[in-house]
Structures are given as structure tokens and as C-alpha cells.
Design goal:
alpha+beta; L-amino peptidase D-ALA esterase/amidase; five-stranded mixed β-sheet; 17 strands; about 25% helix
């Protein structure tokens, strides 16, 4: 086991990034998916092809899921994923055409690096070409420009990133991958350790994000607080080899959001576009309560790993740098 979403048989992940411009994307290739779902909990989502995942609609599952930086501009990179899949004959075969289905979501990371740089079709295609069972974490893929701790000023944020984890019981495997770019502070779900978030003005220690939020109410200056209008987002995918109907795949995505709540506080705010996609490859009998609970566990651990593996970059401290200075 790699402690990765790719522990689910048939799932591959590819990353592509421009480190100089602080932008990147991640692709989860899931052409063996039998069913899929999605659940959006944040108030500012940027998504693609989510309506078709509604249980009442015809398409049972996408052929790939695309996660990206670049805000809404970054959705263009999914075109490159479609090109790659089509060239390889992956998609719905209609007459003489191959039509891949690519669902996706983006984070807002335009305050980092080049604000005019966005993942495009070439980067999306490159991520597909890099896909394998080995998944790098931290400042890679869609996590390249990710930040955490948006409860105060821009210079008080810390470096976020990409993380993955898995859990299993017998033949049942559930994995998660996530891009952590959240407003709240991030905690280790197993130890309770505070891993990152909003720094104090000197950059020496981490403030309580929830208290910082409440302080804005005390100041009675919400309407004049531009920093209160920030946009951030945590996006991810959970996958399993369980046999799930499309409605139960959606339930899996819903339950996986408990992983966000365990590791991020506050989460699911109006400025977050918090989104989780789910994939089921339909090989092992199980119960949705078991699968969904395991998905929440894997997601919570993946969030913590994203922060532990992130490196300081673009003037923002990482967990590892801050912990060494304490």
C-alpha cells in the first residue's frame, strides 16, 4: 500500500506545474469507474461537469477528474485532458466519435506567483502523460500555488499543497486526494496538532482562525473589510473499489466532507468552494456507512499530509519551517 488514492486499483494520478509562475494542475484518471458523485459545500465553487453527476442524470461516471489552480481561468486545462483521453480512445463512443467526460474544480491562487498565469490545455495534457500510481505531495500539481490561513492579511498566510492518503479493511480500499487552499487552520486529525493556518503579524506563531473571524464581528467593520472578501477553496477526490450505486457514490462524497471538518477549522465558509468528487470502481461488496466513514478518514489524513509535505515558497512559510523555529 502506498497510502495513496492510487491504492484503489485502476486509479492513476498525474501532476503538471510551472513552479516559477506558481500554477499547476492534477488529473485523476479513472476510466474504470463504474459510478461517481460530487458534493459541493462551499459558497464559492468553480467547477466543471458536476450536473451530470447528479444521480438522476444519465452519465454514471467521468473518465477523469481535473483539479487545478488558476481560479475560473484554470478550468481551460480540462480541454487538454479531453484531448489526451480522446487520442487514447477513452470516452463514450458515439458514431465515429470518442467523447470523454472530464469533471473538475479549481482553487483561487491568483495572489501567488504570476496573476496572469493559468493552467491551459497543454498543462492538462501534460498531467495526463505524467499519470502513474506514484503521487508526489506538497508543492506540486494543483497544490503548487495553494495557501492556507486566509483569516487575516495576505502576508500572514502559510503554504498549502497537495496530499493523498488511503485506508483499507480486507479487500476494501478507500483513498483520497486533496488540494488544501483553505481559510481555516489545519489540524492533524489523529494527534490534534495544529499544522498551519493564519500567522501572527510577526510570522512567529499561528493564530486561532475562528477567533480572528469573530474579531471582525466585534470590530463592526465587515462592510469596510476587503480582507473579509477573500476567496479560497479545498477540492478533492475520494475513490473506492466498493460496489456503489450512483446515489450511494454521491453519499460517499457527502460523508467525505466530514474529513474537511475534522482537519480544517473553520471550513465550508461562503468564500470557500469546497468540493469533493467520488469514484467507485465496483469490485467489492460493502456498506455505504463503512465506505463513507473510511472516505472521511482518508480525506482528513490527506489534508494533514498536504501541509506536512509542503515546502516554504513564494515568501510563505511551511509547516516544516515554522516547526523548526518553535
Amino acid at each position: 500500500m502506498r497510502d495513496s488514492i492510487t491504492d484503489v486499483p485502476g486509479i492513476r494520478v498525474g501532476n503538471a506545474q510551472d513552479q516559477d509562475k506558481a500554477r499547476g494542475c492534477t488529473v485523476v484518471l479513472c476510466e474504470n469507474a463504474k459510478t461517481a458523485g460530487v458534493d459541493v459545500r462551499g459558497g464559492s465553487p468553480g467547477t466543471r461537469e458536476t450536473d451530470l453527476l447528479n444521480p438522476v442524470n444519465m452519465v454514471q461516471a467521468p473518465h477523469a477528474i481535473y483539479l487545478s489552480g488558476g481560479s475560473a481561468f484554470g478550468l481551460a486545462g480540462a480541454d487538454g485532458v479531453m484531448q489526451y483521453l480522446s487520442e487514447n480512445g477513452i470516452g463514450f463512443h458515439l458514431l465515429n466519435l470518442v467523447v470523454p467526460i472530464v469533471s473538475g474544480a479549481v482553487i483561487f491562487d491568483l495572489t501567488v506567483g504570476d496573476p496572469l498565469a493559468y493552467p491551459g490545455p497543454a498543462m492538462g495534457r501534460e498531467a495526463c502523460m505524467n499519470a502513474s500510481q506514484e503521487v508526489s505531495m506538497g508543492n506540486v500539481g494543483a497544490g503548487t500555488g495553494a495557501l492556507i490561513g486566509w483569516a487575516a492579511n495576505l502576508n500572514q498566510r502559510m503554504k498549502g499543497g497537495l496530499g493523498t492518503a488511503s485506508t483499507s479493511r480486507g479487500n476494501l480500499v478507500v483513498g483520497a486526494i486533496v488540494v488544501v487552499n483553505c481559510m481555516g487552520n489545519v489540524y492533524d486529525p489523529e494527534t490534534g496538532e495544529l499544522l498551519g493556518g493564519t500567522l501572527d503579524p510577526t510570522g512567529s506563531y499561528i493564530l486561532d482562525a475562528y477567533e480572528e473571524m469573530k474579531n471582525k464581528q466585534d470590530a463592526l467593520s465587515l462592510q469596510a473589510d476587503p480582507e473579509g472578501l477573500t476567496t479560497h477553496t479545498t477540492i478533492g477526490v475520494v475513490a473506492t473499489n466498493a460496489i456503489l450505486s450512483k446515489p450511494m457514490a454521491t453519499r460517499m462524497a457527502m460523508m467525505a466532507h466530514d474529513g474537511y471538518a475534522r482537519s480544517i477549522n473553520p471550513s465550508h465558509t461562503s468564500g470557500d468552494g469546497d468540493t469533493i468528487f467520488s469514484i467507485a470502481t465496483g469490485e467489492v461488496e460493502s456498506n455505504i456507512d463503512i465506505v463513507g466513514s473510511m472516505a472521511a478518514e482518508a480525506m482528513a489524513r490527506a489534508i494533514a499530509k498536504a501541509i506536512r509535505y509542503a515546502d516554504s515558497a513564494y515568501g510563505y512559510k511551511s509547516y516544516s519551517e515554522l516547526s523548526k523555529s518553535l
